[in-house]
Amino acid sequence: MTEVLIYGSAGYTGRLCAEEFVSSGLRPVLGGRDGAVHALAARLDLKAAVFDLSDPREIERQLKGVRLLLNLSGQFLTTQKLLIEACLASGTHYVDLAGEVEDTSNAFTFDERARRANIMIMPGAGFNVAPSDIAAGIAKNRLPDANELVIALATDGGVSRGTLKGMLSHIEHAGHRRVDGVLVAARPAETELDFQVGGRRFRAVYDPWLGDLFTAGVSTGIPNISTYSAFPWLAVAMMKGRLLWLRDLILNHLLPLLPEGSSARQLRHGRTYVLAVASNGRVEERVALTGPEAYRFTVLCLREIARAVLSGKWSPGFQTPALYGRELLEGMEDVTWD
To answer: How far apart are the first and last CA of the chain?
Structure first.
């Protein structure tokens, strides 16, 4: 029986995750599409499983006997379907880092089948969803009749090429806002929010793509949800449809010249800031926390979720990180409740 298989382990986040798992005493199998997986597996003294996603039968064969699959390979709208189908057939729990509305809602379409197969499907297991989903769940528990939820995020640190490419490719496109339980169209940066966490003040703009717009709707049932992120001014300008020539220059020419991800110093010293405010129109409940750098936070979330699943703490069907509540974050380094 293989405990954990990390697919996409040769990518920036995948390597960080593999290294963290090994340092924590876990021995995952490293999976991916190309031979770079073998080099990483050899360095960490782990087994490797190289396979692409072109043959559903081969995916299912590779997952036979695997208890938990961590999908860290991007383009989740494509990889989710193929890997979840194989997990349903092999009885493997599925967790990924999908952090946008379309990705998380796509995973939800497998809920009923996952319940019948007695496996758990959990997207949004990284920084972009997990801590904010947990904070939102705490706020809802404190204010059961809340009908509005605001989530705000800020980070100090770097960004991976994959994340930057994904963000820039649709940075001026419309996204969503949850209104009366329904996702409606919303423009990026259409409104602003000033907020404070951990003694720091931030100015954020409306972020219409965050997966919390879907996942928090499931985990809290709150009908009206807005999501904000603090972005650099250049990104905000692009979100408003300006400086798109610079966006194209970065995507078409400059991206390969940028660092692969956060530097070692940024991983050590970067910080993240999460705020969830639930309201019933008369009273507000504010839940805030600071955490480690975003990519570091992501691999810690994956580590703790993997430990929970392997110890039998999981529920069948589609689940969000709020399933584990505050306890999931309590086991992490450098997480402070504000």
So the answer is: 41
